[in-house]
Amino acid sequence: MLESYLRERLKKKDILLMTHIVLGYPSFDDSFRIIETMVKAGVDLMELQIPFSDPIADGPVILRANQRALESGATVQGCFDLAEKATRAFDIPFLIMSYCNIPYRYGTKRFVSSMATRNLRGAIIPDLPPEEGQEYLNDMKEFDLAPILIISPTTTIERMKSLDNFARGFVYCIARKGVTGETTNFSDDLGVYLSQCREATSLPLALGFGIKEKADIDFLKGKAEIAVIGSQTIRTMEKKGIDSVGNFIRSLG
Amino acid sequence: MMNRGYYGKFGGAFIPEILFSTIEELVEGFLDARNSPGFWKKYTDIMSTYSCRPTPLTFAENLTKHFGGARIYIKREDLNHTGAHKLNNVMGQGLLVKRMGKTRVIAETGAGQHGVATATMAAKFGFRCTIYMGETDIARQRPNVFWMERLGAEVIPVKDGTRILKDAINEAFRDWVTNMDDTHYVLGTACGPHPFPEMVSYFQSIIGKEAQRQIVEREGKLPARVYACVGGGSNALGIFSGFLNDPVQLVGVEAGGKGLDTSRHASRLASKDASIGVAQGYKTYFLQDEDGQMKETQSVAAGLDYVGVSPILASLREEGRVRFEAASDREVLKALTLTVKKEGLIPALESAHAFAQAFKEAPDLSAEDIIVINQSGRGDKDIFTIADAYADPDWQEFIKKKAKDYRA
Ligand SMILES: Cc1ncc(COP(=O)(O)O)c(C=O)c1O
Questions:
Q1: Given Cys at both, which of A30, A64, A126, B318 links A57, Cβ 3.0 to 4.6 Å?
Q2: ω into B195 cis (within 30 of 0)
C-alpha cells in the first residue's frame, strides 16, 4: 500500500521528495533517462504525466512540455509502455498524472486495470473532482490503487474533510492559487493552511506548486510529509540537460 | 454529493479543486439573481436602453421571392450594440458581477465579438478587463482587437495549442484560477462547467422570447423551422428556447469548413467525426482522436471554429429535438453574397451558416410555411476575410497603399 510505504520511508527521512515528468518529453528515451537520473538522485516517488492537449491546471512550462510530447507522437499506449518499463526497473512508487479525458476515452475501468497491471500505485487527475468521479473512485478501490485528491487554499475545512473520505495514499495540497510553475511565497500563511489540512486528514500531506530550492523544502519539514517538484526540474533539464537534473535534486536534500 | 448541471449525460463541472468554491459562489449568485423579482426586468431595461432590444424580426421579401418556397424571416441580432448576440450574455453576466461585488472581468474570444462585447460591458460598468484571443484569430479579426484595446481592455494573444478559441478558453481558466477573488470569467457561449451553459442560455433566451412573440404577432402562427448557426451554441439555444415546446423544427448549423468528408471542419453534431469526451470543464461531443487529444478544427468563421459544443445541444440532439446540419465555407460565402444583394443585410460569416442551410431547404417548403433565420451578428468585422474570399482587387490595392503609407 502506498501509505505504508510512505510511513516506512518517513522513519528515515524528515521529508520525502516527489518529482514530476511529462512522458514523451522531449522523447520516450529521454523520459526514461530522466526517471533513472531522478531515482538515482534519491527521489522517493514520482508522478508520470500522460500528456493532454488541453491541460488547464498547468502553467506554461508543463503546458509546453505536454504539447511537445504530443507533437513528437506520444500516445497513451506509449506512455503505459514506458511507465511499465519504469516500474520494472526501479522500486520506488510511480503514479500516473493526467486529465480526465485520457482515462475517460480509454475506458475508466480499463485505464485503472492497466495501471494496476503495470504496477503503478495511484493517480492524480486534477479535473476530476469526486462529485464527477464516482466510477473512477470505485474502480481505483477495486484495484487497490490510490486516488490522490487535491486540496487547495480555497477549500473549506468541511470540504477537506469530505474529500478525505475518498482520498488514499496521501493528499496533494496545492500551495497557492494559480497554475503550476509560478512562484510561491513560503510564509506563515502556508503553515496555517497546512495545519488546517492536517486537521482534516490523517493521511500524509504532499505540498506542491512553486517549490524551487532547498530553502522551500526546509520550510516544509514538520509541516508536510512530501515536497513535490514539477516545473523546476523541466526548466533545469531544458537549460542544462538531463544529467544536471540529478545534481539539482541532490542539491535539495 | 450531487452531480449538477447535467443535460442527459452531458454537462457537469469537471473543474480543478481550486475553482470549486468560486463555482459554488457563482451558482449561488446566479440562482439568487434569477429568483429575485426585479432582475429580469432590470436586464431587459438595460438591453432596451443600452442596446437595441427588442431587435426587429425582418421579413425577407426578396429572398422569399427568389426561392419561391417558405416565407423567410430574419431575427436581427446584428442590431445589438457591438453587432452580435454576444452582448445579451455579457450584459447579463455584468449585472451578476456587480451583484457579486467583483471588479475585474476576463473573457476568451474567437471572432472577437465576445471580446468586444465584454470590453464594452467592462467600460460601461467600470470593471478592469482582460481578453484572451488565439494568435490565429487575432490575425483574422484584427479590427476587433483594435476596438477592445480602445475600450480599455488588455488583449493577450494566446500562442499555445491550436491558437484559436479553445486555447483562449484554457488561458482564461488559467487566469481565473489565479485571480478568482476579484475576477469573474465571462464565458462567451453555452459551454464550460456548470453553471455556464445554463446561465448563458438563460440570458440568450431573450432572443427566443422576442422572436416567438414577434412571429405570432406578424403571421398569427408559428414558423415551420428555425435556423441558427452553432459555435458553442449560445445564439442557437437563445432563439430555440422560444420554440422548444412548440411543434417547430429546430435546425442547428455547424461549420462544414472545407467539407465533412475532409477533416478540415468544426462539425461536432452533424458529422460522425466527434465523440463524447471531457475537456474545458464539461462533458460533450468533441472533435478528438482515439487517445482523447483534441483535434484542430477549421472554419472560415472564427466564431464557429471550436472543438466542443454546448452540452444542452448535445442532449437536444440525442433527444431528437434539434436537427444538426453543416454548411461549407463555399456555401456560406454564396449565401452571404446573396443576402447582401437581395436584402441589403450583411450577416456575419458565423450567421451566414444558418442562412446557407435555410436556403437549401426553403425552396422545398410551401408558401404557407414560415422559416426564421437567426442573424446572430453583422459581417462588417469580417471585411478582411470576405474581401480575401472575393479576391477583390480594389480592396487589395487599398491595403497595399495603406501599408505603404505606414512604411513611409
Ligand atoms: C456573430 C456570431 N455568431 C455566432 C457565434 C457562435 O457562437 P454561439 O454558437 O455561442 O452563438 C459567434 C461567436 O463568436 C459570433 O460572433
A1: A126
A2: yes
- Looking at domain A15-251, what is its CATH homologous superfamily? Aldolase class I (3.20.20.70)
Q: Are residues A152 and B18, on separate chains, in Cβ contact within 8 Å?
A: yes
Q: Chain A partners of B4 at a C-beta cutoff of 8 Å?
A: 131
Cell numbers standing for residue B309: 459544443
Judging contacts by C-beta atoms under 8 Å, the chain B residues touching residue A231 are none
Residue B233 shares a structural domain with residue B315: yes
Long-range contacts: B219-224, Cβ < 8 Å, 24+? B219/B71, B219/B370, B221/B370, B222/B246, B222/B247, B222/B248, B222/B370, B223/B73, B223/B248, B223/B369, B223/B370, B223/B371, B223/B372, B224/B70, B224/B248, B224/B249, B224/B365, B224/B369, B224/B370, B224/B371
The range of the structural domain enclosing residue B278 comes to 53-83+206-388
How many CB atoms neighbour CB B402 within 10 A? Answer: 10
How many domains does the structure of chain B reveal? 2
Ligand 1 contact, B88 CB (< 6 A): no
Name the closest residue on chain A to residue B158, using Cα atoms.
A60
* Burial grade of B24 (CB within 10 A; 0-12, 13-18, 19 or more): middle
B257 lines ligand 1 (CB under 6 A): no
Contact A200, A173 (CB under 8 A): no
- Residue B111 CA: nearest ligand 1 atom is 14
Q: Answer yes or no: are the C-beta atoms of A197 and A160 closer than 8 Å.
A: yes
What CATH number corresponds to the domain at position B16?
A: 3.40.50.1100
pLDDT computed for residue B1 by the predictor: 41
Low-confidence ranges of chain B (pLDDT < 50): 1-2
Between residues A187 and A111, the one the model is more confident about = A111
